[in-house]
Amino acid sequence: MLFTWAVRTQVAIVGAGPAGMLLSHLLAAEGVDSVVLEARSQDYVLGRIRAGILDHCSVQLLQSVGLGRRLTEDGIEHGGIYLQCEDERQRLDFVDLVGRSVWVYGQTELQRDLIAAREAAGQSIFYEVADAALYDIDTERPYLTFIDGDGLPHRLDTDAIVGCDGSLGPSRASVPESAKQVWERTYPYSWLSVLADVAPSTDELIYAWHPEGFALHSMRSSTVSRLYLQVSNHDTLASWTFQRIWDALARRLGDGIEGWSLRRGPIAERSVLAMRSYVQAPMRYGRLFLAGDAAHILPPTGAKGLNLAIADVALLAPALSALVRRNKAELADAYSAAALRRVWRYTHFSWWMTTMLHATGDPFDAQLQRSQLHWLYSSDAAAMGLAETYTGPPLAVSDL
Ligand code: FAD
Ligand code: DHB
């Protein structure tokens, strides 16, 4: 039998996505050591193209923990968004409405910053691990076993395990059925996402309702556009030629209206993304804590998935620090309920943005959607509600 390497750490983190890497950074700042286990290679983790908007709350946190330099230099601050209903486009001014802005900064860039910061600090990260399994999570001495990238078996003893391993990882599944509750909704449409090497045709994001389907114009830089189209759940990439994608984007985003036109360019990446809402509660079972996509999935229309993962670990880090350094359990005991308050706020917001902006083919739905959009155009109170959650209400440890 192979010798098993046994290591001990204060906190074991499963998953090196934004939640896991930021948590290891925040814990280190609290004087808590951690080990991160990741199933994929570092190149794979860095290459995943996902979210693109950091809200005010995330930006403040990242800046306060030394992760704001590239974000401030290379990110693009946006003071609002455009909301479009057929051929009418209106701007919501977040700064006027709630005094906060958001930043365009790709998740890939944030992941790069997190990896650079953790590597500079000597963080222990195992990439390409297999068979990560959690044991004794309902005791004060949980442990994990896994196979490292060279095929060597390990045992990792710890005071607490944090599942930051997304919706398919082993953590959420380790909670017994009798100890958890799950809420889930699958939407009857998907997103076709496009990354195009062309200058954005807008200065701020355009969220567009159109009877044919939703479209979103986002960006990554002054030379790269990020665009999304509502497609059917049965659509495949093969049925969406480059020409068909650009034609649909142009129609839905209002090419030709009041002199606006959509710039077209080479498409570097395309994929289809299913849309669902999922919440698992509680976000803690014994010494296992869940954070980010491991505990909840949001449809992307409100741009909240990444920001919610950041908010979870911002609450969790001080709670774990108190638990493992001072054996004080109060904050850890409060974590799940506190995190779930924001989870449900963002779950509702993402559901609302999604159902307001996606065409269903039902004429009654269409009238309600038009009515909601015109309400947002005409009422500061309504617009303020959208702006407040889109830009991310501030985080406070007193939330715990
Ligand atoms: P993840 O980033 O998923 O990280 C989890 C990590 O755990 C991964 O690195 C994974 O490889 C690892 N892992 C899984 N299983 C194991 C295992 N067995 N052992 C060890 N490690 C494991 N949000 C938006 O706001 N806007 C968007 O446009 C948007 N687009 C998205 C597109 C896609 C295709 C996806 C999947 C998500 C998108 N999201 C978007 C959501 C956003 O990217 C996530 O909310 C965010 O990545 C959550 O971070 P996380 O660290 O919790 O999870
Ligand atoms: C992006 C993604 C979103 O889901 C969204 O609501 C806004 C922007 C993006 O990838 O840029």
Automatic annotation (TrEMBL):
Record domain FAD-binding: where: 8-349
Protein name: p-hydroxybenzoate hydroxylase
Keywords: NAD, Oxidoreductase
Uppermost EC category: oxidoreductase
One term of GO molecular function: FAD binding
Catalytic activity, EC: 1.14.13.2
Gene3D superfamilies: D-Amino Acid Oxidase, subunit A, domain 2, FAD/NAD(P)-binding domain
Organism from which the protein derives: Mycobacterium attenuatum
InterPro entries tied to this protein: FAD-bd, FAD/NAD-bd_sf, PheA/TfdB_FAD_monoxygenase
Family annotation (SUPFAM superfamilies): FAD-linked reductases, C-terminal domain (SSF54373), FAD/NAD(P)-binding domain (SSF51905)
NCBIfam families in UniProt: PRK08243.1
